[in-house]
Structure formats: C-alpha cells, structure tokens
Design goal:
Elements (H helix, E strand, L loop, with lengths): L2 E5 L5 H11 L5 E5 L11 E7 L7 H10 L4 E8 L6 H13 L4 E9 L4 H8 L4 H8 L9 H18 L2
Helix pairs in contact: 1-6, 4-5
C-alpha cells in the first residue's frame, strides 16, 4: 500500500497537521506540498490537507479536489481558526466534501489553527458582525497544540485501519 500526504499551508498550521499525519503512517509514504502534486495515480490512499477560507475551500482547492480526486480514496484534514464543532465550520467541511464529490472519502479531520494577523485584520474590517466578533475573541493562539496534533495522528491510524487490506 502506498500513501501520499499532500497539503496546502499558508501560515504553517496545515503543515504541522500534515507532518503529524505523516508520522503516524507506517506504510510506504510520501509527503508533498499540494502545488507539487500533479496526480494521485499510484497511491492507494491520499491524505489531503487544506486551510478553510471563509467557511469553505477557496477556488484553487475546489479545482484541485474536482480535478484530482475522482474515484480515488482520500482522507481530508482541514485547519480553521474557529473551535472544532462550531456549526459554520461543519458547513464549511461539507463544502470540502462536496468539492471532492467523485472521491471515496474515507475520513475527515479538522482542527483549529492559529489565525495570522492579516486574516484577523481582514476579519476586523469585514461587514460581517460574526467575522468581526471571531477576530476580537480569537481563541486560536498557539494552535494546533500538542493535543490537536496527537488527535491528527490518531485520525491517521484510524483511517489506515479502515483501508488496509
């Protein structure tokens, strides 16, 4: 079984989760930045990690998922500024699933990551009162922490156990 862990990370949050996922996989594996991935051919399972933008995937991520994941076994891991379980985050995760509609999604993991200052500034200037409130009560500092990274490793183990022959 060959496994790929591929990720898009702008501030380092998703990269940390990708490295945690990668470290938990004993099978032959590779880790790559998403921009270095041209195909998922040759992999039995691909873990794909992305940051959430405005409660969903951005256009480049939607294009990647729509183009590369059809009929492929994938597991998604998503980072975001909000605490896990927050309803708009769950709606956003569904948008990632929808973008990969042709894939066999064998698992989904999400966790909070630290918001960068540019994002917080944009949110503070947003017309959305909800986004302004999130920026003001930012609980994302120091995330993903050791507990969340351990949960990412457990997710990788659970996912591998589902797909091993």
């Amino acid at each position: 079984m060959r496994v790929l862990v591929a990720y898009l990370s702008q501030t380092g949050n998703t990269k940390k989760v990708a490295e945690a996922v990668y470290s938990a996989i004993p099978e032959p594996k590779e880790i790559k930045r998403i921009e270095d991935v041209t195909s998922l051919e040759g992999y039995d399972l691909t873990f794909l990690g992305f940051p959430m933008h405005m409660f969903g995937p951005d256009e480049k991520v939607k294009t990647f998922l729509g183009t590369h994941t059809k009929d492929r076994a994938i597991a998604l891991f998503i980072t975001h500024m909000a605490p896990e379980g927050f309803q708009p985050v769950q709606v956003g995760i569904q948008k990632f699933r929808d973008a990969a509609a042709g894939a066999n999604i064998v698992g989904v993991f999400d966790c909070q990551g630290q918001a960068c200052q540019e994002l917080k500034t944009n949110m503070l200037n947003s017309p959305s009162p909800q986004l302004r409130m999130f920026a003001q009560v930012d609980y994302s500092q120091g995330q993903p922490d050791a507990t969340r990274l351990e949960r990412a490793r457990a997710f990788a183990n659970e996912t591998m156990n589902k797909v091993r022959p």
